[in-house]
Design a protein that fits this description.
Length: 570
């Protein structure tokens, strides 16, 4: 098995800009054969996952340990107060299961949840910081279900690393320090976050400082002893409800909302692609849209091109625009709206939509009319990002691909028990209907899950065995980041690390957001000539993590140099 050594990440991150003549310069990856691998956004979390694997645990066991540590050392992205999607590959049966730990709106929430007294949508930041923004957390319940079904270790043993770090303290990383000292924690508007990240001398924590979180350690001990009920019932649940009912725009969440939360699980949404099978979560995840884009690109010659070809990037951009047009119109919680999954992936419909993909960018495409499509209004959802992704392969061959989030950076900014509460409900469309009265597929409703761009991916080979897993944070740009990585590995023949390192290009409507510096002036000009006018700074950076099996059973891992993650093996 092969692993991208963490020490090489800095070298790989410094690749030269793309040009029309030369591809990116990438350092070679050393090869050895570990018996398992963990790729995640912080080395401390990766080590916690590896410890579980060393002790004989499965990928599902390790995911609990990784999440517990990430909620401490990368709280801007995910935590016990958030939600997640997980795709699990069972090596023994070959079955791929999708777990849905997406947060739910309280039962009393209505379509006017984010409307002001004048009937107009609330200011977005005001909504995020309010009690109304928080959905019933789902990550803990989802992990408990997946671990119960696929784990071997005792649940109580999976929080040791996180508890030790919370009690003894951990070193604040540069990325976390940047978030702590940014305007993302507005003074006076997020008092819990301000208090947590302020030292006794009145200064905010900096990179290299030691930060302790004894309240989080207490929560972890309770979770270890009582299981997920420690979060969904009892004193901690009461504290969550009480905190959300404070302020001018209080939540309607009740203890019953927490106690009755149930994660969903089902066979993953899997479709053939090339000689492979691609598996993603079911809606309200947007996985169907990534598969649609991959299928559309099969109708182009992108695989005969490469990352140094501006036409290849134009094709990718045009596929993304079509993908988002359909996703934004139709994807929502299938318990409340009809999501035309079969219609969106129907080969005839895909071929029809692929005709909109050209070698120059035209006008922004409109949504299509797949078979079974309901009458829904246009989407106006704003989707910020505070998310992370992990991939875990255990020695038995089981795999976890999991994307987890608190939504915005530090979620709602409200804390209970040492962790942040999500602002996931701001992923709903604030306006419940269009001007003509057509309901939005992603409108608010009591008990509804908001649409998600989180798409953890698992790829099977032609024999149905695990081949690769990849995923990323990034808000609505997640779809583009994942698509880029898939094209890089499977169309352009790159290593996982090379594909992750490629410049990001997010094309949605009339906007083309990109890593302009990584593309370089020559490629930027070539794209401009084809109507793809890329701009920087419009999306959260990616945080891709991936693992692929190479010939001979060699594992190859990759971690996004734009963040602080690593891929390490046993």
């Amino acid at each position: 098995m092969r692993l991208i050594a963490p020490l090489l990440l800095a070298l790989i991150a410094g690749c030269a800009p793309l040009s029309a003549e030369a591809g990116p310069s990438v350092a070679p990856a050393p090869a050895y054969k570990p018996s398992g691998m963990v790729a995640a956004a912080n080395p401390l979390a990766v080590e916690a996952g590896l410890r579980v694997l060393r002790d004989g645990g499965t990928a599902a066991d390790a995911a609990v340990a990784v999440q517990a540590v990430l909620g401490l050392v990368e709280p801007q992205s995910s935590g016990l107060g958030g939600g997640a999607f997980l795709v699990f590959y069972d090596a023994k049966t070959g079955k791929v299961t999708a777990y849905d730990g997406r947060e739910k709106a309280p039962q009393a929430a209505g379509p006017d949840l984010f409307l002001g007294p004048n009937g107009e949508p609330l200011n977005f930041v005001t909504a995020v910081l309010s009690g109304r923004s928080t959905g019933v957390p789902g990550a803990v319940g989802m992990l408990a279900q997946a671990q119960k079904e696929h784990g071997k270790a005792a649940w109580s043993s999976l929080f040791k690393d996180a508890e030790r770090l919370a009690d003894g303290g951990f070193t604040v990383s540069p990325r976390l320090a940047g978030m702590i000292n940014s305007t993302r924690i507005p003074q006076g508007q997020a008092p819990d976050a301000v208090a947590y990240f302020t030292k006794p001398n009145g200064q905010r924590y900096q990179a290299g400082d030691t930060l302790k979180n004894p309240a989080y350690a207490v929560t972890l001990r309770s979770l270890a002893a009582k299981g997920p009920s420690a979060l969904y019932e009892g004193p901690l649940a009461q504290r969550i409800v009480d905190r959300l009912h404070q302020g001018e725009l209080p939540s309607s969440m009740t203890l019953a909302d927490l106690k009755t939360y149930k994660p969903r699980s089902a066979d993953a949404l899997c479709r053939p692609w090339k000689v492979y099978t691609v598996c993603v979560p079911n809606p309200s995840s947007s996985g169907v849209s990534v598969i649609q884009a991959l299928m559309m690109l099969e109708h182009t010659d992108i695989a005969q091109r490469g990352p140094s070809d501006p036409i290849a990037w134009t094709l990718l951009a045009e596929a993304e625009r079509v993908m988002y047009a359909d996703r934004d119109r139709y994807v929502g919680d299938p318990s409340f709206v009809k999501v035309p999954v079969e219609g969106l992936l129907d080969p005839a419909y895909v071929a029809q939509r692929a005709k909109l993909i050209g070698q120059t960018a035209g006008p922004a495409p409109s949504y299509g009319q797949p078979q079974g499509a309901p009458v829904v209004g246009p989407d106006k959802t704003q989707e910020p990002a505070g998310t992370t992704h992990m991939v875990i392969v255990d020695p038995m061959g089981n795999v976890v691909s999991m994307t987890t989030t608190v939504e915005s950076v530090f979620g709602s900014g409200r804390m209970v028990g040492g962790f942040f509460l999500n602002n996931q409900l701001t992923d709903f469309n604030f306006a419940p209907t269009d001007r003509d009265g057509a309901p939005g597929a992603n409108a608010v409703a009591g008990g509804k899950r908001p649409r998600s761009s989180m798409v953890p991916i698992v790829v099977l080979d032609k024999g149905g065995k695990f081949l690769a897993a990849v995923g990323s944070p990034g808000g609505s740009a997640i779809l583009s980041y994942n698509l880029k990585a898939m094209v890089g590995v499977f169309d352009w023949g790159l290593s996982m690390q090379e594909a992750i390192n490629l410049p990001n290009l997010v094309a949605r409507g009339d906007n083309f957001s990109a890593d302009v510096e990584k593309f370089g002036p020559e490629m930027t000009a070539a794209l401009q000539a084809r109507g793809v006018a890329i701009k920087t700074g419009q999306n959260e950076t990616s945080g891709l993590h991936g693992v692929i099996v190479r010939p001979g059973g060699v594992l190859e891992g990759g971690a996004d140099p734009r963040r602080e993650g690593v891929a390490r093996g046993l």
